[in-house]
Predict the structure.
Amino acid sequence: MAKLTKGNKADLLCIVILLLLNPATWYITNGPENLGTDSAAYITMGASILSNGLSYLPSWGHVDVGLLLPPLFPLLIGFFKLFNGGDALVTARLLSTLLMLGSSVLGFYFLRNMSHRAVAVCAVLLIQLKYHYLSMALTPLTEPLFIVLALTALLLWQRLLNSPDRWKLTCLLLGLTTGLAHLSHQVGLVLVVFFILFTLAHGLTTMRDRLKEVLLRGLLVLAGAATLVVPYLLVVQAQTGQLPTEQRFRMGQYEVVAPDDEVAEEVREIRAYEAPDYNTLYNRRRGWMRLIPDGSEMYAYVLLDEDAGGASAAIPELQVPRQTGIRLWTNFGYLGNIVGRPIAWLFLVTAVLSLLGRNRPKPLFARAMLPLLIIFYLLSLSLVTGL
């Protein structure tokens, strides 16, 4: 059995300190009731996913709308509730708390590899004290799982730089991890694309004389992700007849026409909304969730006289174009709300400074990975999804 080195002992001590000073640690078994908007959906899906094998939540009663949710978190709920008395709610809350605690450990190792052990401890401590961190730890949602997988992918890429002799296995594991990230959250697809492009860019920059190896690295990352994502897409297609590009989908069992002129006019007004900011876009979404007077259908799926028939004609396009600069600034503001604006600006400045200069202890690609990932993520949200 290998003995712990002085560095390993220091790391373990730092992790113990971080966990003891983490507010989530003291709420593992007795946290307050804290359910998010989608918590009930994930818990419901997790309670039955192993028995019915459905990759979605079917419609219920008179509401002809099903939900397509990323399946990984419900699968974990379904599996671990077998060892927790069959209580899906308690299992989901416990999983979220443990995953956020795990994210602190992974975040410490990532930052320690990039800077210094003391810097890593201070940074993680500051993050742990944020309200958003504790809120995610106590709320049964898939975000903690996504964060853990994203940090795992970052650590794997660090390993790819530090241990190039095992690049084949590391690239494959990186692909599998990003594939799991997509199965935990739809935006995980951003990680898949980013790490494929980043791996190819690193290879083309540092290994120009080994183009075959560079291409193989990218293909291994792609193959690892596709191994998990493609079967899921096929299952969803077979069960629902569509791809999981939208969370909500209509089963197409019946159509509802606007019952009176007042409802029809309200539907037209919602369709005509322009969304220059998030609040307007959010209110528009809320408007589509309203029910017509007899409660038989939501406004989003009501057919008007001018519709050419079929439910798809009434489904609104929610991604209203906005100026790119406004989108990016707004999304950076959301990042600032989560980690704190001073920390967000400090990160932005240090990220830019880390790219300057050649004589640095860490190679350029190691320093650029996290800043470029966040920029790529914000660009993807702003330019592709319209958020």
In short: The radius of gyration is 23 Å. The chain has 15 helices and four strands. The first strand starts at residue 65 and ends at 67.
